[in-house]
Amino acid sequence: MSKIEVNTVEPQCGTTLTLGGSGDTVTLGSGASQSGFGRTGTVDWDTTPKTATFTAVSGDGFFCNTTSSAFTCNLPAGSAGAIVSLADYAGTWQTNNLTVSPNGSDKIGSVNADVVLNTEGQSVTFVFVDSTQGWINVQDSTSNERANPFITATGGTVTCCGNYKIHTFTGPGTFTVCKIATCAANNKVDYLVVAGGGGGTTGSPNAAKGHAGGGAGGVRFYLNTTCAPMACAPASPRNNYPSGTEVTVTATSFPITVGGGGSRGSPTYPSVTSGANSVFSTITSTGGGAGGTTAAGSPGGSGGGASRDGGANGGTGNTPPVSPSQGSNGGNQPQPSGNAGAGGGGGFMAVGASCTGAPHPQDAISPGGAGGGFPAAFGTSGELSGGKYYFGGGGGAGNYYGPGTAGAGGLGGGGTGGGDGSPACLAEDGTGNTGGGGGGNTSTNKAGAGGSGIVIIRYKFQ
Length: 462
Fold this sequence. Notes:
Radius of gyration: 35 Å
Structural class: mainly beta
Oligomer: single chain
Order of helices and strands: EEEEEEEEEEEEEEEEEEEEEE
Number of helices: 0
Helix content: under 10%
Mean pLDDT: 86
């Protein structure tokens, strides 16, 4: 190794001095500093993040981590050409701000006052110009280019609620997971899957039976995240969380089936049908059972009510069985004759009302069973009541004789029954995208069709 000791190196001729050859690296010794070269408008970045108030050094850039709390960067005493850069280390300046404070009587942008940096992902560069303007910000980036550690997905109608995205499907579609989360727990998604409601029935001109309310579509849900307690109203063991079967997604496409409502009964009552199933991944909610035509109601997510003068039970809910239950039984009608009314359709959270009164149905009008209320964590679809959004109401039974009144539809989109009284009232359809059962009706009027279902998926996206 050769060593040369000199105080000054000057070119032999001309004004250009070259140190090293092409491709060589010229290095200052440890602890040595340079002067006279001037700055190029850049800084040397200090890669140890700052987490508390500090005083910056000219020529350096600093990563400021305000995750735990806000703090202050004190600028050095200003001198022409001094330069300081600051960057948002964790993307938290919008929550915990970084304050930049000038030294003494120095100014920032012509004013002797602090500057507050409060934009997520921001980075700035200040250069001291003169005593009039002081420090001037010559570079301000508000981009926040960061890898996303959470799920990214497409499909349905997408809304946001806090740190969560909600994908709502009111018809068939595809939920496509483009990228899974880096944390396995965040790949466990919340869901609400509601099937189509069953149709209500009417009597035929020759056999005035029917009149029964349709059962609600089955309701299955999972809510693992920050909405305790799970607000399924009225209260039951199903209101706990997490509740239901976990679904962990992968980076693939999930076909979504949204069940349609069952067809209504007409004076030719055999036309009535049960609702169709709704499906997401491994979760299938069963369509609501049709109201009974001559006897028992049909089984389903919630069962249809038994027919007028049927002497039978309502359809069985939670069929096929899942845990927790996806629905309830339809209302019974144990009177084989005597002009007794029909049963109401079962709802997600409550059985349909049974009709035991005789001889006149106005003495025993049978409403549909109540559905379940969910928080706005699942969006704002459903029937709003008391700050919750209800799904899965059973259809009310029709009234053959009474004064124009009939069984009310269950909260959660159940259709109200109809009647031949004075004035006559028509049965209501179950509300679309609630899974509500259709209302029953009399022998001369159409009953209500079941309401279509819905599928809602929710996950953390930031």
